[in-house]
Amino acid sequence: MPKTHEPFRSSSSKRLVLIVDDEQINRDLLGFMLDGTYDCLYAANGLEALRAIRKYRDTLSLVFLDLNMPEIHGLDLLKIMKSDPSLRQVPVMVITSENNAEVESLQLGAMDFIPKPYPQPEIILARARRIIELSEDRQIIRFTERDSLTRLFNRDYFFGYSHQLDLFRKDQPMDAILVDINHFHMLNERFGRSFGDEILRRVAEKLGESVEANGGIICRRDADVFLIYCPHGMDYEAAVKSASIHLGEDPLMPSGQVHLRMGVYENVDKSLDLERRFDRAKLAANTLRGNCVRSVAFYTEEMHQKEIFDAQLVDDFYPALMQKQFKVYYQPKYDISQRRPFIASAEALVRWQHPTLGLIMPGSFIPLFEENGLIPQLDRFVWRETAAQIARWKRQFGFAIPVSVNISRVDIYDPELTTFFQSILKQYGLQSHELRLEITESAYNDNADLIIQTVGQLRSMGFCIEMDDFGTGYSSLGMISNLPIDALKLDMMFVHNALRGDLDARMLKLVRDIANYLSVPVIAEGVETLEQAQALKDAGCDMLQGFYFSKPVPAEAFAELARTSSLPAGSDAEQ
To answer: pTM, whole model, 2 decimals?
Structure first.
């Protein structure tokens, strides 16, 4: 029998339990049954019990609780514990002679019920062991199932619980929702990681309130992305508005607002796996990129058809490469420095001659392949095909017609880029100035130092570098003056906008002044009318490209154009 009721001081590995009973003999008897297996604490009334539970809540494995006690009744103590998140996880076994109190005790959070007088010690020990094991397993699950920052479910448990919702709510329409924070990486960059973490906690709290009120579940998938699975009918606009934090309301935070975007796949097809459902929600959310007006987008049948179409294109990519279904078209660039424009060079543009889908334009597959990491392989195919065609024309005409190929920003990060270009020059017997390289202005803003270093290496090899889409990347004048480029190529929309009014026309002249400062020619693309061609010539552009002269055409058609309008035979094509 225990000789003392001193507070817990043991360093043993035995679990700690609390025996709560106002009768000394009952405490001693139960303590005797448990003493060899557990370290025991004792309380003679409800108030003592509450103090002990709060003090030892992190190490307390089980409370044996009598109901009829002074100070605080056992049922009232259960209510207090249930309402306190820090005490709620402590398991309780109710011990009383009141048989009619069993249901209420269990409803208030008790895990088991033992009647008085006490049953055999083996029964009490077996039940205690089962409750403690269940409680510890539950605590481990609770610890691992939550994201440590936001306390929302993590991805794996979220998908597990979503599956359970489907099992037990088979006939209930459900929505899959994806939410992320617009430009979250910039918040981290500007204000620091701790600020970004606080934003995530606040957004998670507000979203969680909306989701819980609608009977759904929510997780933080990664970074600033949240997934929601809930019964159909949640007020999406209200949820986004509630969670779009107004920073100015907190004097300790920067001013402004955190904007969210939400993609909703309504009334999901439950035959799809959960990943696919949230992929559809993501497709809807992606339509809001750059949109400062709308915050919620819904998955549609059109998106579904595009999803199927995109999946087919990705699946067909490698067979298409092997079978050379990708065709290189050539759009001529006309030198307008003389009275009669003539073809001075060309741009290589890819098309996909699909065996069942017909001719597919690059706008349908280039962004898709960029997203799926396939674009470097396609680029290399185009570069090689273009080099081979330049060599054929060189033999056919007796001189080279330079052709420019596009280099994506992903290509720039390839350490083998310069080696690859050296190999195709050698393979097809070309000079470096005969294969020109177009790099978009925005690529220079991505990682300026690396881009400049790589482009500088290519230029030192003799390649002519054209800055493509100039006018869309917002380069500073100071930056442009340090870039290794040989030509400025104006973006199509910049050209069209610049020809609409006097102010925009003056922008063209400003670009011409920049080109003069850099001693490089100006190429304008997207020329569609005679009036545009004349205006661009008057503004000082050196070369023009567009449907007014010729659309992109196959190699054979380009050869016909070159026979009637090209550099004089024997010239070296603007070396």
So the answer is: 0.66
